[in-house]
Amino acid sequence: MDRKSMKVSALAGLTALCGCAGLVREARQEPVERLDAYGISAPFLTVESGTVLQFINADARPHQIYSNDCGELSSTVLRPGDIYAVGIGIGPKVCHFQDLLAPLSTGYSGTLQVHDEQEERRLATQD
After folding, report:
1. Neighbouring C-beta atoms of residue 12, cutoff 10 Å
2. What integer pLDDT is reported at residue 13 of this predicted model?
3. In the chain, which ranges are continuous DSSP H helix?
């Protein structure tokens, strides 16, 4: 095989690898929390650091997400139909959240477990 053929083969191989990596990224769906008359759709979520989490107000009433643990989860008032999208910060961490406009309703509270594979690997190799 001559040098030009080797370069073309290498380029084709790298292109295929990059294409596959892109498919994996696109296949991962970002989580969506739906707020409706019955509460929040998933009261417990596990995500990776950097994930974008969306809160969609599918209720007729306004809602406001609040988290004392993870400030990035706290939203402004979400009117019916509003969407709040937030990038989750670095983990590992646990974030508790609730609806400030329905503080006594347990149906509108939840827990977000944030994993960070790189940080967990780093901590594991320190020992």
Report:
1. 10
2. 52
3. 3-27, 117-126
What φ, ψ does residue 95 adopt, rounded to 5°?
A: -120, 125
How far, in Å, CA of 96 to CA of 68, rounded?
A: 7
Over residues 43-64, the pLDDT tens digits come to: 999 999 999 999 999 999 999 9
Superfamily of the domain at 31-126: Cupredoxins -  blue copper proteins (2.60.40.420)
109's enclosing H/E stretch is: strand 109-115
Tokens representing 116 are 């960070």
Q: If you search the block for the tokens 């417990």, which residue do you land on?
A: 44
Q: How far apart are CA 24 and CA 59, in angstroms?
A: 33
End-to-end CA distance of the chain: 48
Higher pLDDT, 19 or 118: 118
More confident residue, 117 or 64: 64
Tally of CB atoms within 10 A around 9: 11
Q: State the Rg of the chain over Cα.
A: 21
Residue 23, classed as helix, strand or coil, is helix
